[in-house]
User: Fold this.
Amino acid sequence: GAGVSQSPSNKVTEKGKDVELRCDPISGHTALYWYRQSLGQGLEFLIYFQGNSAPDKSGLPSDRFSAERTGGSVSTLTIQRTQQEDSAVYLCASSFRTGSETGELFFGEGSRLTVL
Amino acid sequence: AQKITQTQPGMFVQEKEAVTLDCTYDTSDPSYGLFWYKQPSSGEMIFLIYQGSYDQQNATEGRYSLNFQKARKSANLVISASQLGDSAMYFCAMREGASGYTNAGKSTFGDGTTLTVKP
Assistant:
């Protein structure tokens, strides 16, 4: 596809259930990010994948959150035993890191998660 | 410590006037990039402008310009001739770039500034 694709666009789940959010980055982009955004708030960094390097997981809020990136392309963010405070829009972004200073992020449209 | 600081949670500007959105940053990496993104109420993130740490001139893109003051570590966004469609949340971001630094390539965002353009 032409842009970053995220699915599902909307997910409503019950407290305690597990959810998986998928991100398909732009082909050839080596960097992939997950951010979380609550209503009217800023972007909360969750995790960062860069090429074959070990991911930067420093933003994951708890061990209920995990993410993987298979084959350097598609990424899945998994939230186990969801809580109401997990409700937010989960944004995925990718970039092609050509050098030390370039490469804006291209964002997907987000996955809106509502935990009842 | 905050890497990106946007001190203005909300700003108002009259249509057709100019407005400056503040951003300061903190890094020890000599090589970095500074970005501004716009997020309208529809939710999509739109890239506006980029400034590299070694760029001698301030970046400009149409009505957007970046007032880059390296010694003060500030990268303020200036929007000239504001339009109603400029009403949105604006995020400043930094990408540290030099290999060998822990955060090489990682982008960090500020908390954002909500701009409202009044008719």
In short: The beta strands of chain A are 5-7, 10-13, 19-24, 31-37, 44-50, 65-69, 75-79, 88-95, 106-107, 111-115. The first strand of chain A starts at residue 5 and ends at 7.
